[in-house]
Amino acid sequence: VQTTSRFATMMMTPYTTLLATTVAVVLLTDAGAFTAQPSFGVQTTSRFATTLSMSDDDVLNKAIEMMSGGGADEFETPDMTQARIQTLVDQNPVLLFMKGAKSFPQCGFSDTATKILGSYELDFHAVDVLADQAIREGVKTYSQWPTIPQLYVDGEFIGGSDIMIEMYENGELKELIEKVAASLEA
Q: Dihedrals φ, ψ of 21, to 5°?
């Protein structure tokens, strides 16, 4: 894709249209080709060729919708992701960011974390980071901790499964969980 040219033609099937659109949007954005009113169009010129041009706002909005999993209004910036994480932390007394679901962890560390928390018979909220790439990367920035799972208790970052194991073994985690459970019952 040449950012100095108004058109770029690529050979593609319908299955690669999204990929090509995504790559073109990224390349054009990185090159500073978009102005304050960006637009991007996709026009099929034959069964296998697609012409990409900067001329159709509706197609740009559709590309954003496809890339973000929702509508153009749902496109999420890193700041928006951080705000969403903050809301999750604020609203859930015991929160675990993990790979997979509580009932089906997708890594050994997440499995260990859910078993530890499950031993306290306290309902905790789990967020599957595999289902949300923005959260997966954003939570690492939020906590300044590079790995998942991550446990938050009463709004405070506790750590990953290694720290949870240590706190479980020495009784510190039980004290924190019992404190939260008592505040929920009050």
A: -60, -45
